[in-house]
Amino acid sequence: MIVCEESVPRSPQLAYQPRIEPLDALAAAFVELARYDNTNTNQIVIVQGVVDAGRLASAVVRAASAFPLLLSRISPRVREPDIASIVVAVRHCEGECDFSDDSFRRLLMSLNQHHRLDWRRRLPFQVYLVLDAGRRKSCVYVSSAHAVADARSDCLLLERIMWEYRHCEIDRARASGGGRIHPHASLRQIRPQWYGLIARVARLAHAGAAIAADVARRDYGMPCKRDGRVPSDDIDFYHSLMDEGLAQTVGQMARRAGVTLNTVLSAALARLLERLNDARRPVRLTCAVSLRFTLGREYVDTFRNYLVATALRVPAGLDACGLIAYIDRSMREARRSPGLLRELGRLEWLTVMLKVPMLYPLTRAVVRRVQGTNACFSNPGLIAEDLSTFGVSSTGDDRPHDVLHYTGFGCLVEPYDFILYTPTINGRLQLDAVYRRAAFGDVRTQLIERYCDELRLLASELDGRLPARALDAVPPETGVSA
Question: From what superkingdom does this record's organism come (predicted)?
Answer without folding.
Answer: Bacteria
